[in-house]
Amino acid sequence: MVCESLLALRELVHVLPFSKACCSSNTKYGDGNARESSPFINNAELGRGNMYEGKNMALFEEEMDSNPMVSSLLNKLANYTNLTQGVVEHEADDDSKRKEVKGPRMGTFIGVYLPCLQNILGVILFLRLTWIVGTAGVLESFIIVFMCCACTMLTAISMSAIATNGVVPAGGSYYMISRSLGPEFGGAVGLCFYLGTTFAGAMYILGTIEILLTYITPNAAIFKVTDVAEESEAMLNNMRVYGTCIIILMAIVVFVGVKYVNKLALVFLACVILSIIAIYAGVIKSAFDPPDFPICLLGNRTLSKRNFEVCAKFTESNNETKTTPLWGLFCDSPLLNATCDDYFIRNNVTEIQGIPGIMSGVLADNLWSAYSEKGSIVEKKDQPSVAGSEDSKMSGLPYVFTDIMTYFTMLVGIYFPSVTGIMAGSNRSGDLKDAQKSIPTGTILAISTTSFIYLSCIVLFGACIEGVILRDKFGEAVKGNLVVGTLAWPSPWVIVIGSFFSTCGAGLQSLTGAPRLLQAIARDGIVPFIQIFGHGKANGEPTWALLLTAGICEIGILIASLDSVAPILSMFFLMCYMFVNLACAVQTLLRTPNWRPRFKYYHWTLSFVGMSLCLALMFICSWYYALIAMLIAGCIYKYIEYRGAEKEWGDGIRGLSLNAARYALLRVEDGPPHTKNWRPQLLVLLNLDNEQLVKHPRLLSFTSQLKAGKGLTIVGSVLQGIYLDKCTETQKAEQNVKALMSVEKTKGFCQIVVSPSFRDGISYLIQSAGLGGMKHNTVLMAWPQSWKQTENRFSWKNFVDTVRETTAAQQALLVAKNIDLFPTNQERFTEGNIDVWWIVHDGGMLMLLPFLLRQHKVWRKCKMRIFTVAQMDDNSIQMKKDLQMFLYHLRLNAQVEVVEMFENDISAFTYEKTLMMEQRSQMLKQMQLSKNEREREAQLIHDKNTASRSAPAAEASVAAAVPEKVHMTWTKEKFVAEKHKNKDSNVSGFKDIFNMKPNQSNVRRMHTAVKLNGVVLNKSQDAQLVLLNMPGPPKNRKGDENYMEFLEVLTEGLDRVLLVRGSGREVITIYS
CB of 813 within 8 A of CB of 779? Predict the structure, then answer.
């Protein structure tokens, strides 16, 4: 037989005991359900086909629902696809079906390198880099570019580490920051990055219009003026009108067909690359054949050649001297005897080459800076000049003027947007073949390439172009040509057309990317007020986000000046990069187990330097813009912290908080703090009903009023039973308590304990709540109102034991009597008193509690009164003076009163009350004894009936379990005799109760309680709160119920009472 074989096998290998019952066909598993008819695979009832099915993993089959097979897990991971930008993250979208990405995945070159190149190279390179070089000089321009490129390179290293630390769904920097630093930082920086991207769109559009109206079709201007002084204002108005039209047009294009924008991206990139090639080709050509772009100078002042061709005052023709159009610009008539400008008369007109070429040695002249005030004339430094009269007017004359005041930090702010765009690769992580390999390689290569282009262009521009041309922002001295275009080969139009399409494409890309970034933030649900922008068309296109983006873009358009918009977006990008570096540094320093990036060439010091450089650049660019950007981010952070959705993303800030908490806990002494640092660290003991709801919610209200959010608060409760059976109830109770804590604004921790007995659970909490030095020193609980009820006979025992245990643990105890009458956090006492009855000194806690309560707005207008009791031999007048001086040193404002209690005879009322108390106590004991006897009889009868019906085997086990002294056989005579015996004993016990005399010690204690209660009622019946010393329980446990009666009498007739039992150590001091 199989069973015999198994038994033999057990004896051989010493396996677990195996019963012969194993052959039974009703074998059940631990949950009591029969899983199979036989535990053996060769059971005849099993079909032939599934005989061996699942036998390899049978040991784990009951856990397959929660712990899947490794093969199925790997299959899911293999089929994982990155979610498109704007949809909910993959953790929250497990149930949705993911469609496989169709089409070829992109590699490093197409997917990361070229998009980064297109985003980095752009409008600033073509429109402002020559001006920056001319104004700051080659050396300072090199410093500006090097700082900005170093900032982006360090940020790219940090970003590469984060991007290669696991799968990064599309979302770019927002996803990386939010999952590394938490939802608050992620939301704040994500919105700042969104604003930066949006203002970048405005900057590109302004660049497009500037190229159009200045270099392509100047006659297309709507606002035209003849006065040179008003020309800049007219240009700004033209920018506003054209900008508004273009942004509407671009928004329609993005709304209708975003796919066409993506297809045109390569065309726009080709324009950028061709333009840069044309610049390098022009530099090479200038070495042996410089282009012919003559500049006209009057003295050392540069002239605008928009209104004249010949650079001379007059010409000789047929032996006749004729004045030129230039003469007419400076003189009141074309005649030689006309009245002319004084400077024009004293200085000669000269013509020099604007592009002398790389071999000309002009680099030495362009090494140093030439900053200027707004409205000053662009001058050549080494050119001879004779000063004119001081009263000569320069407005209206054809000079080249500077349009803004220039200085180093301002140029940094204008230049920095030209190095942004390093996130383009990470934004496309969902479309990459291998994102963890492509993002670091492509991004760092793109930054290296663009850094080389920018740095080399600075040197080449300084070596090829005359300084006055470099400082001529709009190319007025070269007939309105784009300055960088004058250097290009084969024609300036290559640069003009290329830069025009480049800026157009960049603007469209910004209007495409920014709404998707906003949609991703909105769909994460961390910022409630932008959730509407998570919606869009049926295909997921962010319609509402596009409208908001166009609206914010319009703000940048209305500013109308590219030089004013550039520093704004610099702030937002720098803040984003700063937090990318911070995220990498935090993760590296914390050494979290999940921090395992594939990119190994990073270090926390590099991230820290990058973060510091970003912060420094923010304040270098514009300190007030930096403060505004940080204020916006801070407001968003606090908004998300208080109103945002709770998200647990395993972020680094949480890890940083845990590390800081651990460090602080290790630093905090595991012992009592100094008296000056003492404050009540509360353990609040709550009672729950059958639905796991809090019975006395106002206990938490009182806690928040007492703590005001300071110090430690642990809210604990006990469920009676076994934890395995009470798991669900425990979770429900914890949720209910935390919800109530949130409503009552009680900041603290919740701890639910499951224990076989309520009393043991309370003991566990008192002993073990807290951690290290952060342990409670005070227990707050409600007075057991129903302690006199027979069915609740254990409540007073638990209460008295809790009092004893807090005393043993050297912890203070606060007992709130009539807790349901205490005020809620919404109530306000406009008047009234908080009365302190200082009977005995046990650490001074009675003095401290009213002070803490009056910090809260509920009790703020209540006055503090202190009463103390004087005996027969005490000098009450001196006591009052001493108490007033003591309060003065304690810096407490309170009214002092000394109440005299003289010895007198014990009243009949006190004697009677004591007698009734002892009779009640004795009667309860008799009733309890009688009830126990009845329960014992019923149990014996039940055991007898059970025994008569059991099988022989069961009889043996029951007999073994029942003690020998219990007789299982009952006769009628025995039963009657036992019944009469109990009845006689009960009757005699009750007769003793009515003949007893009260204990003298109890009489004295009752006398004190009655007398003191009368005094308190007389003085404090109308007080809003009465604080009273709580006497300790008797050392003899037989008098516990009498102790409860004493406390009841002591507080009788008072609405709100807080019984205070100090820990014995001083908690308040007169010293500073």
Answer: yes
